[in-house]
Records
---
Amino acid sequence: MPYTLSQASLPVFEIGLNAINAVLDKAAAHAAAKKIDMSVLLAWRLAPDMFPLTRQIQIITDQAKNGSARLAGIDPPKFEDTETTLDQLKERIAKTLAFLKTLDKGAIDASSEREITFPLGAHKGQMTGADYLKHFVLPNFYFHMTTAYGLMRSCGVDIGKRDFMGGIPLKTI
Amino acid sequence: MPYTLSQASLPVFEIGLNAINAVLDKAAAHAAAKKIDMSVLLAWRLAPDMFPLTRQIQIITDQAKNGSARLAGIDPPKFEDTETTLDQLKERIAKTLAFLKTLDKGAIDASSEREITFPLGAHKGQMTGADYLKHFVLPNFYFHMTTAYGLMRSCGVDIGKRDFMGGIPLKTI
């Protein structure tokens, strides 16, 4: 009954990134229908000292690419955080999805007990690969996924839990 | 390099439940300082058609206890959803934490390829154990964790990302 770090990470990021990409499309349709400039939604925040939608999307993609690259033992590609439009954010998501496909699953699987060192504010964090995935990368990934979703919900975008969950391998009986 | 379903679930729920328990304490302190009745915070919502804080806490605990019980192959204990006070919600979290300690880790680990059937609205959902954990239980757990956190943030409670992450095994160097 194997369960591996690559199984626990790559498909989760893939489904999540595709889900948030579709949520952004629904947000754009909502903005167009209501004659709201999309830049207003991209700058929306849940609280004045929380990040706006644009930054949430940047961090979601960072968690996916940086987390899985570090597990695979390679340096993550650096994305400049210069996106200002919906199309640029969607391109960033697409680039992240393409990068995930290049990773060596065996290298990720072999990292569960290896110490991973990663930037953490002005310091560095260190955790085993398994702990890094389950206690750092996934909570952060979902934190920003949910916050992005909640932002759009609070703006009136017509999305529900299924949009958040995305294309999961669920059989309904 | 083993990575198991019990490792990927039980400590994640434990850290998350303790984190949200501490967030609720900070919310209560905030309410007391601002002379806001705690029932106002417990009824707060991000959007009119999203669940209030009380329900978010109920679902967080449900995902943890139901998810892990089903992976262990046993019927989850049923909690009546009757909490109306902070103390009752904290007791629900404590009961969930105590229940998690009773589960058979070997049974959870053995369930990665076993079909799990679970209630899903008016239907039932079916997924393998590994898929159920990573594509259903964890996304739902974190969705409601983050929404509860975001609700408290939007009410002005003085919490940050560290409060959300909780007591993770992180070494700072």
---
Amino acid sequence: MSFIEQMKFCSHCGNKISFGDIPGDDLQRFFCKSCQTIHYQNPKIIVGCLPRWEEKVLLCKRAISPRKGLWTLPSGYLENGEDVEQGAKRETEEEANADVEIIRLFTVYSIPHIGQVYLQFLADLNNLDFYPGAESQEVRLFGKKEIPWEQIAFGAIKFTLEKYFNEQNLNSEVYMGTSNTR
Amino acid sequence: MSFIEQMKFCSHCGNKISFGDIPGDDLQRFFCKSCQTIHYQNPKIIVGCLPRWEEKVLLCKRAISPRKGLWTLPSGYLENGEDVEQGAKRETEEEANADVEIIRLFTVYSIPHIGQVYLQFLADLNNLDFYPGAESQEVRLFGKKEIPWEQIAFGAIKFTLEKYFNEQNLNSEVYMGTSNTR
């Protein structure tokens, strides 16, 4: 299962780690027979924005793996110490040097088999002074008919763009999705 | 900072771990000078339900720490391998043996200083056959005027209950909140 981060040693006592059933727990986990620590692993949150300017939206062409060369909305892992809106705004600054005002939460997309949950926000660009950050090759505005649908990097991003361009209720509904990929 | 899980040894190679600045990174992290592994830590997702029956909502009195003896909505850590709705439904079954139908996402509440994000769902009870799970002392329905406001276990739960009983738009709006506690 690809969501499991491999552990070989206990991060608490340094002894070799075990993996398997835990009494009173439905899931198998890493645990330490020496110091009895159970090492829980949980899904990670990815936050990002759908930055808008008139009828167009901003996409970033990825300069790094995975999916290098494909297009995405500016997004990345939420960090400790920030709330979800701060994280979405930070990622938009880092990947596109774009100054945005966050409008509202727009999509929540779970990817169970890799332990990820995307939270994407509608946002408005405050100006057009964006340019690629270190993780982007190119940053561009696209109208609905220009979106490179076959070159979108991630399912959660495609879901968000499809909802944005195809749904009528952009005022309040938060669209929920789950990846079916196994 | 209370969101940092202490590490003493590298879980990859077993050598002593370091903590500090990482080149090209704005945050301090655990890293291993021996095998060069950077150990990222990210916020965790807590999912739960606001289960409803007519004009009342279901609360659980906690049987475990933290906040033992205080009241909460059934909620807990999202696990790898499940989507956010599945996690919310599972927690509601575990803590209250309650059978619910999830209606929609209702609140998203970030707690930056402990690295948590709550996703709470409006849900309808399918029947009244609920009873306390292992982590609950008691499970009860409360009307608006009966809610034990001074004995609610967590800020995110109080936020959710306040929005539910005080806001007018229960049909579509997802309420966003951030803890100000430092």
---
Amino acid sequence: MRIAQIAPLIESVPPKYYGGTERVVAYLTDALVKLGHDVTLFASGDSITRARLVSVTPTALRLSNCVDQMAGNILQLQEVMDRSHEFDLLHFHTDYLHFPVTRRSHKKTLTTLHGRLDIPELKPLYEKFNDMPVVSISNSQRRPLPMANWIATVFHGVPADLYEYGKGEGDYAVFLGRFSPEKRADRAIEIARRANMKIKIAAKVDKADEKYFDKEIRHLLDQPHVEYLHEIGEKEKGPLLANAKALLFPIDWPEPFGMVLIEAMACGTPIIAFNHGSVPEIIEHGKTGFIVNTMDKAVEALKNIHLINRDTCRETFERRFSDIVMAQNYVRLYEKALHKQSERSFYLTPAYRK
Amino acid sequence: MRIAQIAPLIESVPPKYYGGTERVVAYLTDALVKLGHDVTLFASGDSITRARLVSVTPTALRLSNCVDQMAGNILQLQEVMDRSHEFDLLHFHTDYLHFPVTRRSHKKTLTTLHGRLDIPELKPLYEKFNDMPVVSISNSQRRPLPMANWIATVFHGVPADLYEYGKGEGDYAVFLGRFSPEKRADRAIEIARRANMKIKIAAKVDKADEKYFDKEIRHLLDQPHVEYLHEIGEKEKGPLLANAKALLFPIDWPEPFGMVLIEAMACGTPIIAFNHGSVPEIIEHGKTGFIVNTMDKAVEALKNIHLINRDTCRETFERRFSDIVMAQNYVRLYEKALHKQSERSFYLTPAYRK
């Protein structure tokens, strides 16, 4: 199949540093190539891919001293449309920016929505564009926008060989990601303390979260059971997870997916997560971790984390969350789009069908 | 003629406070109605217009607690395209956001570019979209983008009755607008001091310019010849200008137009301006003001400001910069677009033709 993947330009594919969407697009693109498809990736010029790369900007916009970020996005959109005859299917990862263009196109398209959707302005937008086929990354992500034309949920995947399975022999729990009010590092620190376990924290502070970090988090990091590793690279992430007894994920927001959940599973590391967003779709309670609603339950879960079989975590990862599984799920969607007898019936598939 | 005007959504039309583009769109839209055209304005729901108003958002985005500003813009774009059959011509004021859509449309469109264009990312964009007919608001504005398909320059206009002619009987010069490094209020204050004249300053401080204001400007406002009026409303602007001996416009950047220049002229007030951007196209040296390159020349000009005939300033305004003149210039362009025998020849009119 001749497939175009259209990535955001804000980060390279994969991203140099943080950037969940671009990382998934990288894994998906390479996995589609591995599966034998003819794939073209539209992304910034510093992207690294097994596919054919088409770039309208030399570098990722976040790293260039770019004044006008929209210009590159519009330029890329036109480049995609100019070349659309070269492809059987266009797969967009750029939110809704292309909708007014692709609605007018006869090319088969689908769009994976990577972000949080509980933003009031999106409601009238998806009421208007209720014919555009969109893919969710968890079922819970769809909740704020039932009117959108959801054609499937496809979970993210990561390459099966990217993270090494580990036995969790370090005597610590781990918190990974960002310090932000919705990620609740404060809860993670307290859960570990009350369960009498060390905690290693590898997280970054976004500009927007600096005040929150200074006020709510910084002083908590001084406790003797806390080891603060600042922001770490991909290479350090694997061993950190593989040696951890558990990943703590005590979130307080509707997380659309949560890449770190499947990264932990890839390392065989069970997860203790609060029940929000995608959590109950990704974690099987009692099998790959514990889903909790209170701090007491979280502490109890961490004390009982040895009840979770780490082999089961890794096996579950391989079965549900590898890059190849993700790519196969998308290929099935692409084929469905292409082989529909009537174009209209594809575009108007009822919402919430998996 | 059935004309659609498509405004940005960031401010209402006209804007509640600051917002040059939306103000011009308001004047143009109402003037087209006065000229007997059937005009539809796409703008935020709190806009006030003589035309038919179509709104996808209840209020201007800057004043709502909007998380995602792009959503409204994309929604409006689709609304415009859904209704495009109702219009003979679509006139966009929304930069380049619509280009990938209108390029594929058979509807006649033109786009007025209201902002500064010396932004590196715009070059590859306008190389790609070198067929999209664009209108500049001064010839100098075009300089960074010679590859764009410039079809005309149309100067901004304001309603002839909006500002009252005055005799400049106040004993002061005036500086109006924003405190920002490119506007050079510091120069204005020094020019007045050295010419032994009072200066009244009505300007706002944008969030982005707060540091600059504190460091470079605040202490200058304490001088005895300076009267600082903070931000003023439209109603106060007229008398302030009409009683001023001169408007000081000692800019240090390529101003694309400069609405305050024609507002001053409407009041009969001559201008002393540094020679950048649109200045030599709007001001006639020795007739409606003085164009200078140095502080010495600016001081000399202010001392000689009585040599400028205030009646000539007002007459020049009425002849060149009224809302009706602007609307007539646009109508001529619209007609040109509609009556072209070949669509292609209109879209490919050579650049820099006035």
